[in-house]
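re: ur question from earlier - yeah i can do the single chain one, its not a big deal. heres the input i used so u can compare w yours
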Amino acid sequence: MLSLSFLFWVTVVSALVSFWWQSDKVKSLALGYVYRYCQDQKLQLLDQTMVLKGVWPVRDTNGSLSLRRRYNFEFTSTGAARSKGTVELIGSKLQTLQLEAHILPDEENTLH
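and the output i got, formated as tokens:
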């Protein structure tokens, strides 16, 4: 027969794996939002990486409890200078995408 402590630890490990898997999916969504935005603005997303800066429980527009995740990333408009940006999601929905002040790319001198 299974002990209560074994069931407890299986539940904890399952919850952690589930949270990690869901967080990885949300991070991929955030990366997609940022990548498409950078392409539209003629910017280059650097390193294709994003760093998680925070997770907070919040109420979404429907009043349901969701997680707000904030990621930082770096981009360039000139190919030389790095600038920082922030993307914030509530659940899997884009909330904000902010970029530091940067030099606007020339139309004829795009990075791609």
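Strands lie at 44-45, 51-59, 65-76, 83-90, 93-99. not sure if urs matches, ping me
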